[in-house]
Design brief:
By secondary structure, the chain is α+β, with helices and mostly antiparallel strands. It folds into two domains: 8-111, NE0471 N-terminal domain-like, CATH 3.30.2020; 125-203, Ubiquitin-like (UB roll) (Roll). The protein has six helices and eleven strands. Strands 8-7-11-9-10 form a five-stranded mixed β-sheet. A hairpin with a 4-residue loop joins strand 2 (19-24) and strand 3 (29-33). The longest helix has 15 residues, at 97-111. The chain is elongated, with a radius of gyration of 20 Å.
């Protein structure tokens, strides 16, 4: 193994958001989308890509297998399981993520490929919101079905949208005043929100936040 880069201190897969979170011994941390890791799999093995890998917008990682003390093998749900990612490769993919992704998008355009994913025009996306403690009294409801706009892609953007939706109630959704679960699992700010999800907002204090 090369000493060029630090070694990982934590590797966590966030399946709902299709992200691999990696922390390194020098303090660097990266959130690498599964799609990004998949489309750069062959490049990580040292092979040049003759044409961009396509159709991996919804790919997920199903297995992480250590390879000695220097790498991991990732198994994807599209059946790809032959790529080994060394610590150096993972670090470089993290550091160069923005420019790598930009170059990948440009290669897709040149190839005439239109990526899939969530876009306006696919139809409405509806989720179920559950409220607890003072939110029930303040909102006068325990739950509601809402249609979320295209701008809502994760927990952070959902909370921002809830604050904008009704300015008079924005103080109820102040950052840090509640915890969020998605499909009964406590989640991260970057957890993906998709059609059909059940999202619960659980206040962390019995007191109603003060209006600012």
């Amino acid at each position: 193994m090369s000493d060029k880069h630090p070694t990982p201190t934590a590797i966590n897969l966030h399946s709902k958001s299709r992200l691999l979170a990696i922390e390194f011994s020098d303090g660097a941390s990266f959130r690498l989308p599964c799609e990004y890791l998949r489309v750069f799999a062959k490049a990580g093995e040292g092979h040049a890509l003759a044409s961009p890998v396509t159709g991996k917008e919804s790919v997920n990682i199903t297995g992480i297998e250590p390879q000695g003390q220097y790498a991991i093998r990732l198994t994807f749900d599209d059946g790809h399981d032959s790529s080994i990612y060394s610590w150096d490769t993972l670090y470089e993919l993290g550091v160069n993520q923005e420019q790598n992704w930009r170059a990948y998008q440009e290669s897709l355009q040149k190839a005439g490929y239109q990526p899939g994913g969530t876009v306006a025009g696919e139809g409405p996306r509806r989720i179920r919101l559950l409220y607890f403690t003072y939110l029930v009294k303040q909102l006068q409801k325990e739950a509601e079905e809402v249609e979320i706009p295209p701008s809502v892609s994760d927990v952070t953007s959902l909370c921002e949208w809830l604050r904008r939706r009704n300015p008079d109630q924005a103080h109820l959704f102040q950052a840090g005043s509640f915890q969020v679960t998605v499909n009964k699992q406590f989640c991260e700010p970057f957890t993906r929100i998709e059609a059909g999800d059940e999202v619960a907002l659980i206040p962390t204090s019995p007191n109603v936040p003060v209006k600012k």
